[in-house]
Structures are given as structure tokens and as C-alpha cells.
Amino acid sequence: MNIKLNKTASLVVLFTLLVGCASLSGQGNTVVLTDRAKPQLIKRVQPKYPKSAAKSGVQGWVKMSFDISKDGKPVNIVVIESMPNQVFDKAATDALSQWFYQPKVVNGQPLETKNYSMRLDFNLGRSN
Predict the structure, then answer these.
(1) Residue 108: which region, alpha, beta or left (left: phi > 0; alpha: psi -120 to 50)?
(2) Residue 108 sits in which domain range?
């Protein structure tokens, strides 16, 4: 009886698959635009370490907030906090302004994304 049940179950699965394939065959060349819940980083530019900070052996970080435009560009960049204060701010904002994101997509349309934040670390001898 187990063998008969397994054959029956196999036939049901096979039939279901065939019906599913047949129902898809009439759809033609349909393009589905995939929504993306959040922007994805495409291009990252390393910040230039300030010469005076490198010469003095100073390390630190910069925390920034920004929006990502429909075109994928960081805009409205604001330094929230930095350590040491203002030493790496310009290098960090200059680098971030050159980054590029694949924007958020909803219903096939790119959207501006607001209120992103990130921290760039400046460490001698190590990359960000």
C-alpha cells in the first residue's frame, strides 16, 4: 500500500508541475521590475587623509547624515559629530559626495531616501 500511495503522490506532484508550466507558457516576454527596499552602494571613494593629521599621527572618525537622491547621489550631507572635532570633516564630506548608490525602487520607480547616517573612520595604516 505504501508503494501505491507514493506512486499516487508522485503523479499528483508531476501533474501540478505540468499544469503550472502550462499556465506560465502563455505569458510571453514579461519584464518584472524588482523593488529594492534600500539603496545599494555602487561606488565608494576613499577619503583623503589630511596631511597635517597624518604627520601628527592623529586618527579619528566622522559621523554624517545624508539623503540619497533619485539619481543615487548623496545630498544634504551634514556632519553630526566628529572626533577630533573638525579635523576630518572636510575629507569625509568630500569623499561621501562622490559616492554613488543604486537608489531605492518602489513600483519600478526610483525614490529619494532620507535620513541615512554613517561613520567614516580615519586610521593610519588601515583602510576605511
Answers:
(1) left
(2) 40-122
